[in-house]
Write a structure and sequence with these properties.
The chain is α+β, with helices and mostly antiparallel strands. It has one domain (2-127). It contains 2 helices and 5 strands, in the order H-E-E-E-E-E-H. It has a 5-stranded antiparallel beta sheet with strand order 3-2-1-4-5. The longest helix is centred in the last third of the chain and has 32 residues, at 96-127.
Length: 128
């Protein structure tokens, strides 16, 4: 009895993972409305866990602002990184690298969901 529920559970979990991933992919959708890419420079690499790296960037009006990077990212001081900047409020910024990593994670989630879904479907057919 327990073995016959396994395909159903796999199908439900796979469909949920793939569906959630597709929903997140639509939400990512590239640059937020009107945001611009500007160059940033790594000024501190952090300690790999508690203290994140810091990146400095210039706003269109010439101010120097800073943003924290993801912990445990292999940056070197002086590395140039792309920063996404809200032109309406230059203090709102995030790393382009973070956006790309989110897109990769969503792709992995969709693929995993699809694989689990297929395994569940094959198992259901095999048990018929």
């Amino acid at each position: 009895m327990g073995l016959s529920l396994l395909p159903i559970i796999l199908i439900v979990v796979g469909a949920w993972l793939a569906g959630w991933g597709l929903k997140r992919r639509r939400a990512l959708g590239g640059l937020p409305g009107g945001w611009r890419r500007v160059a940033g420079t790594v000024i501190d690499t952090g300690d790999g866990s508690a203290r994140p790296p810091r990146i400095e960037y210039r706003t269109p009006d010439g101010r120097r602002l800073r943003i924290e990077g993801p912990p445990a990212t292999p940056f070197s001081v002086g590395d140039e990184v792309a920063v996404l900047l809200d032109p309406a409020d230059p203090t709102r910024a995030r790393l382009d690298l973070t956006e790309r990593e989110a897109a990769r994670l969503v792709t992995l989630l969709i693929a995993t969901g699809g694989i689990v879904l297929v395994i569940g479907a094959v198992a259901a057919v095999a048990l018929l």
